[in-house]
Amino acid sequence: MKKIIVWIMLSLILQTTGLYILNNFVFITSSEFKSKKINVNKYTSDDIKGNIPSGVNNINLSYDGKYITYLKEKTLNIEDTKTGNSNEFKTEDNEVVMCYTWLNNRNIIAIVEKVKKDEKEKLQLITYDVKNDSKTFVQDICNFKKNLEVENITTSVLTGVYYIHINKNRIQSTVYRIDRNNDLSQIDINAEVIGNIKVIPHEDRLVYQNKINNKIFATTPNKQLNFNSNKLTLLDIDKNDMIYVGEIDGDNITSVLYGKLNEDILTWKKLNIDSTINKDQIFFNDENQILTNNNLEGSVKNLINGNKVEYNGKFIQIIKDFIVSVDGDGNLIYTPYKDVL
């Protein structure tokens, strides 16, 4: 019995000694690793060579600023901001672009077009992959009639859903939903005319505003968001499903209420705004920051912590990493803001 114990102890000593030698002498040069974060294809402000011509409208940038779109004489133009090369969006049978929007975190545009099919004018939804220069038909929406306008498109790349707001004679709103299987349906809404619409990114639910009485609703199921005010406007929904609602005085925002749809409205946070801010000059990014642009100062301010970033030129848009503006010659200027705000 004593011999067995001695052999076991001897074996353990030899194994431990061997592992110690391997770990501290043999493998010492190969066991130390250093990691390095690599940013692939990340833009900097020095990369920008884009230019916006005079007389264009509906200016909009992709989420990362690699591309910019605008309407020039009712034709959609797409410009690579790194090279400055601009191309007209190609139509095959004289389609007319009625409305478009960039998909979140994608260099893909969702476009509602007016087309002629079987001798009838119709509205259809397509997507356009800018990098690959490829179109994908999604679904026919409805027949086109006189005085029909496409007001808005809101999408979620996470749920694969599109909501299209169509207005007839500016007095009757219709909202169509297209799901990830490209199935089309018409949404029941609690309003004759609606204002802003936004989809919740992680849920197939639409939040919209009754334009007549300013009441705000959500779908699936249909319910009203009951606030202690009737002077409201739906501002935005960020990627974290945070909903932002502004209390208004005319066109100015006096406070911002924000929270999630599954939370009690009474528990939503409220940010009071002392200065006069137009509702078109307030923005929300993916870090839950509430930002406002001051055209006179040439600055963007974080309303929560008071930090400011100044920029040159005329303000265009706030995107993922930059404040985008243009100089007097239409040249794009990208001003980084994340490390400051």
Automatic annotation (TrEMBL):
It comes from the Bacteria. This is Dipeptidyl-peptidase IV. It comes from Clostridium weizhouense.
